[in-house]
Amino acid sequence: MNIFQKLFKPKEQKSFQSLEQMFTGKCANSVPDVVCPKIYIDNAMAGLVYQSVAPVALSVDTIAEEVKNIPPHLFNIETDKFLPQNHKLLKFLAQPNTDENYKEFMRDLSTHFLIYENAFVLVQATVTSKEFKKSEPSQMWAINPEYITIDEKNTINTPPDWYKYTTKKGSLEYKKEIVDGRIRYYNEELKQELRHIKGYSTTNRYWALSKISQIYYAAMQYVWTEIHNSGLLSNSANISLLVTMSRPLDDTIRERLRQQLRSKYTGATNAGKVLLFDNAGDAKFQNLSMNAKDMDFAKLKEMAEKAIYKRFEIPLPLVSEENSTYNNLAEARLDLYDRSVLPITAKLFEELSGLLFIRYKDLDKKPIILHYEEADISALEIRTYLKAKVLKETGSITHNEIRESLRFKAIPGGNTLYQEFSLVPLGTTTDIEPDAKKLEYFLATIKNKDGKPLFKNEDIKSTIKDNKQILEENKEGKDCGCCNK
């Protein structure tokens, strides 16, 4: 019995080995006026949809491939500064276990979360004493939710008492404990901790609902069109026809023929089969081929694909040639990050912070989080440069602050704020006197290397007098002669 069947105890339990079996059972082959009941998507079914429905797999893989390439940083939310990259936690994350590096671990973790809206992280402590709950980690793995079962008692509204991780070798139980005021799950014998990362569900606070549940009909429609078209190609025949009998049939024969037609020649898997049944000599057949509009499976398939991409918030220009141009690809990739990649990355970083920071004394209970830096992400470069340009033009930050945001080294003298020398307060006129006063102030503020004024007062006044004469001549339109030199 899988997790959701335990939680909600459905009256009828069904196991599917393939999407074709899932989508072409009694419901799929029923008469047209029967509405197919929605199947509740559990873990196994969500994984099966990912394996078999191309748009779902493409959506998940597109986001996961971007998430794995975003390196983690330690960020102090009070000082608004990133910490140095030499911390022990970041070195651990670079190789979280003996089989995977950081990118492989994050790919698995983000893929699990995207498919199931649930993900699990298992941490192995470095020490075997009772202090293992706050000791530094030695290894960490992303666990597939299909291998996790949950305590079925009161789990809809209250935290579960335990989780079980089932492998070929047996089951491992992780029991609830309160540590520093937070619920955590430990296996005392193995000195391990299990962390549940979950999204949102309308029915259960402690087990999220997969996005695939919300696109069930789109996925089903996509599979039906694929099966139908495959059937037409393999069977190479058309059975859309009208059957009339030359003599009356009793109820038994009529029902038998109708059942034969229904079971053998209807449904997506029977598309294109040749019609054959007994008493054919008494029957007349009239071909009733559907027109192109009625048989527009390509359009239905396209609609299903778009519904899936929209649910995973994949911009269509990234997956559809019809919607893609050279002008909108960069904006579409930026939109992918804003709507999908960065929110999921922030969610996973937040959960990893909660799981691991308690194991490092210099991070525990500090205003520090795992975060990403936009300068690391190539898709965000355009926005980073535009932001730096605006800040520079407004004079809001120094040159070195701009260079730091662009990952450039600081330069001497780059910590001074500058503004246009010609700027004057609103409501004033740009006559000669304000210009002369600004020039006098500017020259008086210039210092030598000892911090003393570079110009004497009499030299400044003499310079102002000479420049005032030049400004007056220029204002009157006189030629100062400087252009002829």
General shape: flat
| Number of E strands | 12
Helical segment tally?
A: 15
The amount of helix comes to 25-40%
Q: Can you tell me the number of structural domains?
A: 3
Name the structural class.
alpha+beta
- Strand coverage percent: 5-15%
Provide the succession of SSEs: HHHHEEHHEEEEEEEHHEHEHHEHHHH
- Distance from N terminus to C terminus (CA atoms, Å) equals 96 Å
- What is the alpha-carbon Rg in Å? 35 Å
Mean pLDDT: 79
Largest sheet: 7 strands, antiparallel
Which stretches are low in confidence, meaning pLDDT under 50 for 5 or more residues running?
A: 1-17, 23-39
**Cross-sheet strand order for the largest sheet:** 4-3-9-8-7-6-5
Descriptive account of the structure:
The protein is of the alpha+beta class and 485 residues long. The chain folds into 3 domains: 245 residues, no CATH class; 50 residues, no CATH class; 53 residues, no CATH class. It is built from 15 helices and 12 strands. The protein is flat and about 125 Å long. The protein starts with a helix and ends in a 10-residue tail after the last helix. The N terminus is likely disordered.
